[in-house]
């Protein structure tokens, strides 16, 4: 299984589970953030989301029906350890036990992410990611989950998109916990880099035959004006900030200080020996790509001197997130991460699109734009594979429409439509398309293997 190209779908706990305080779960930073006025579009909140906690068996059947045999989901830390540290909530942990068993019973491989942004609120009250104690809190959480599920789950991811949750949550304040400024951002960033590496080490130590990685958001960056030297400098800075910030320390290159001198302010939070603590050797990395960014020099941004020019103002095809549809971006990212010699395997652990979906009078959702988007992006993934690049699998974001963080429920990323009033699931045409595509590609793969086997046998018969 480890060496075949895997096809799957990805989800995350807060975005689908619901069950805000079910069975002893306590608040996460997202539960708290959603209570604040005007932080989330339409003041939506994830209290119920897709109620996956209660519908998981049905949702696993959907996967089975579609022939999708790799399922990425995350664990809610406050469901398992309600106050982040201290007592374990066995009822919460049992949910994941049942979920894993349900996957395995249906021949679906579980891929677990430990941290997809829902920090226990109790830890945030103690400083959250800005408090260096997070290293031991996170390590204990990792141990608890690994000991419970590691006998059956081999595929693990430590963090989801650290650039996003530190930047949006601790610098810009637009994601939970809504903190702003350098004094929050720098310690959060450094402690996250340590936990990223330590999580990998702990999982590898505790789980026999484990396959451990961590994920990174990434986007191809183009200059607004390819002939402008200043725009090219801006591209390199934004590239360092959004594509290299966490991957390079992990593989021993340190933080990209050359392009981003302001990162030297991290030193204030570094202790002797930390350069070693931020390093680890994962079995794979996950890359998550949706779009590209176009960047230009800007004096208005005093630190970065660079500005992202959004898709709307460039008048290009885009999704409801205002993200440009640019399939080559995923190819360029696979190529970029292939150039790090320490990276041995790469999975696309998220890719997908939110478009306006309409349920027609027959109750069907003909989401042609999403199908085209997926066909073109997956085409670029296969292009990289055919060119011999390391690329080992693809996870579509997402199985279900879900809670899209500060955007609320309006953007629908699912290949399965969710009616949030009654929790009815309807497979969109993109779901059927992805299902047929996987079946077809697996058939072709089997045919190829059969042919190779026949060739080998006929050669050895001749030899004999
Ligand atoms: O929904 C998010 C996910 O939680 C992290 N990656 C990007 C997705 C779409 O915005």
Characteristics of this structure?
464 residues, alpha/beta, TIM Barrel, eight-stranded parallel barrel, 16 helices, 41% helix, 14% strand, binds 5-hydroxymethyl-3,4-dihydroxypiperidine
How is this structure best described in words?
The structure is a single chain. The protein starts with 5 loop residues before the first strand and ends with a helix. Helix 3 runs parallel beside helix 5, helix 7 (134-149) runs parallel beside helix 9 (182-206) and helix 8 packs antiparallel against helix 9 (182-206). The chain is of the alpha/beta class. It has a single domain, classed as Glycosidases (TIM Barrel). The radius of gyration is 22 Å and the shape is globular. It has 16 helices and 13 strands. The protein has helices spanning 13-16, 29-33, 52-66, 77-80, 90-105, 121-124, 134-149, 162-170, 182-206, 229-244, 247-250, 274-277, 311-314, 328-338, 368-386, 429-463, and strands spanning 6-10, 70-74, 109-115, 155-159, 211-217, 220-223, 284-288, 292-297, 306-309, 346-350, 393-397, 416-419, 424-427. Strand 8 and strand 9 (306-309) form a beta hairpin. The chain binds 5-hydroxymethyl-3,4-dihydroxypiperidine.
